[in-house]
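Entry for the shared binder. Reason: the reviewer on the internal report wants the predicted structure included alongside the sequence.
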Amino acid sequence: MNGPISLTLGYCLFGAGLLVGRLTRRRAPADATTKPVCGCSHGLEHHDPESKECRGEILHRDARSTSGIYIGNQWVACTCRQYVGPKPFEELFVSPMLPPQDTA
């Protein structure tokens, strides 16, 4: 007898949770557009359009004094070359050897 009561109570709690979740859901603003992001998590506005080098900075390296004592973190330049795919990875570092073919 205890089983059906607990199942009914569980269904009621589950339904109430669904209803409250639907009524209190946060809506995204209508003008929210997603910005293209590179694999390094910087936006594409941080990349040079011609050389594809990233101008963003990341907190990456430990900074040490001349005597070798740790003094904090150091901002270093991002080393990515804007790989966003599906462009073949080899084309980022090696220029094509053949001239472009006319398909007309």
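Summary line for the report: The longest strand covers residues 57-64.
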